[in-house]
Amino acid sequence: MNESFDRRHWLQRFGMGFGGLAAMHLMQRETSASGVSSADGVPSLGLVNPTHHAPKAKRVIYLFQAGGPSQLETWDYKPLLNERQGTPLPDSVRNGQRLTGMSGNQAILPLAGSIYKFDRYGESGTWASELMPHMAKQVDRIALIKSMYTEAINHDPAITFLQTGNQISGRPSIGSWLHYGLGSESENLPAFVVLITKGKGGQPLYSRLWGSGFLPARYQGVQFRSGKEPVLYLANPPGVTQESRRNMLDRLNQLHALEQQRLGDPELTTRIGQYEMAYRMQSSVPEVANVAEEPQHVLDLYGPDATTPGTFASNCILARRLAERGVRFIQLYHQGWDHHGNIPGGMKTQCRETDQPAAALLEDLNQRGMLDDTLVIWGGEFGRTNYSQGTLTATNYGRDHHPRCFSMWMAGGGVRGGISHGETCEYGYNVVSNGVHVRDFHATLMHLMGIDHERFTAKFQGLDAKLTGVEPAKVVKEIL
Fold first, then answer.
1. pLDDT per residue of the chain (480 residues) written in tens, 0 to 9
2. Could you write out the DSSP letters of every residue in 176-211?
């Protein structure tokens, strides 16, 4: 070993030790200076310990509908569009706002009303489409946000923005931030799990959407797949027994411990921990992924696809099973909502696949006493236009991307049920009251988990980076 190598690791070992003490002192001083005493929060296994305030939610299940569901066929009832079917979008409504190249060159932008009926449901009288008969029965449990808006007009930057707080890839995802800040409650499962509906086309999904960005790699999401091997490379190779695997890990841990004493490299400790987690997951993952062991009445609740691995229904049951076992952030992706054409057929298929399972998840969590501390979220990356992309007929039409307004809902975990927050104009084109930006959504999510988004940062390129970025963001207190 050369001298420069020894000096470098000596400085790393002892320098990081003194630096760690200084960092701890600074964090403690910042916490006390904030005016929030530790008694207001709760103990945490992560960096934010205690939490900045008492959390309302312990875990999150995020049902991400990739492609941009049409708010006009689901939650945002606009009868004026039916009355003015086929007439051009008024310039006074568009107000020069940019369009995509897919419809921006059309001679006219004909207004298109929904072919689906809407009605009021629940004690709250919330409007909902006939496409969602099961979620219509759950409206008194959800906070419907009709005034979401974003800046991105194309899929990749818009999805990246929703998942990481930045349109440019490379930032930590929401689940990574929460794992980093709050730690993991489970010794046998990852804190952040990703489930993707199998067999769906549409806009591609990339692993960077659940990546850890500039945070350590151990905070990235772990994708569970349908089939015999839910987590890739987890099972022992043919001929390797569990006993031999344990012996190998014991010897490897001894070698790493010796190296750790010599170099003081924190990454070695992380590596040992990841090996041990993988070993424990060899038994815990097959058990939690065995959705078929659920009672028949539970499977019936989630619908006919519940026992088909990889479907949205099966993934919703798996999400609840993961939540029961201490997984903090569970992200479900369901593709296929990008309806530039054939809204009638496409929306019917998508809602048939997702409506009953999403409603069943809320009902199931509530029956188990878990909804009060589980935050459930449904929504996509943006909405759809109030005009038809391409030819408009009495039975067929499409809708282009629309970032100016779209709908999401949240339930459980400290969210008020039975309310609709925000409004769009009578044309369903612009937000007219109580707009909720993507950054506001992130700030609210973090708040419900006991974290002040302004105080939770990580150093990156010399700056204090945070999920909500540098622009102003507010907690949407009206839905809490």
1. 444 445 444 444 444 343 333 333 334 334 333 334 445 899 999 999 999 999 999 999 999 999 999 999 999 999 999 999 999 999 999 999 999 999 999 999 999 999 999 999 999 999 999 999 999 999 999 999 999 999 999 999 999 999 999 999 999 999 999 999 999 999 899 999 999 999 998 889 999 999 999 999 899 999 999 877 888 767 777 877 777 777 777 787 788 778 777 777 766 776 776 766 776 777 788 889 999 899 999 999 999 999 999 999 999 999 999 999 999 999 999 999 999 999 999 999 999 999 999 999 999 999 999 999 999 999 999 999 999 999 999 999 999 999 999 999 999 999 999 999 999 999 999 999 999 999 999 999 999 999 999 999 999 999 999 999 999 999 999 999
2. HHHHHHH--S-SSS-SEEEEE-TT--SS---GGGG-
CB atoms within 10 A of CB 37: 10
Closest by CA position to 346, among listed 115, 82, 167: 115
Tokens matching residue 49 = 């310990």
Structure tokens at 401: 């991307």
DSSP state, residue 379:
E
H helix or E strand, kind and range, residue 162: helix 155-164
CA distance 259 to 474: 47
Tell me the three state secondary structure of residue 460. strand
Q: CA angle, corner 202, sides to 234 and 375, nearest 5?
A: 65
Crossing angle between the packed helical segments 3-33 and 242-263, to the nearest 10 degrees: 90
Beta pairing partners, 458 = 465
Domain ranges of the chain: 53-479
Stated as kind and residue range, the H or E segment containing 60 is strand 59-65
10 Å Cβ neighbour count for 454? Answer: 14
Instruction: Indicate the pairing of strand 59-65 with strand 374-379.
Output: parallel
Which helix (H) or strand (E) element contains residue 269?
helix 266-289
Q: Which residues contact 90 (CB under 8 A, 6 or more apart)?
A: 427
CATH 3.30.450, domain 53-479, yes or no: no
The CA distances from residue 179 to 53, 232, 440, in Å, are 17, 21, 20
Residue 221 tokens, joined: 């999401």
Conformation bin of residue 72: beta by default, left when phi > 0, alpha when psi is -120 to 50: alpha
**Which residues have CB under 8 Å from 279's CB, separation 6+?**
245, 246, 249
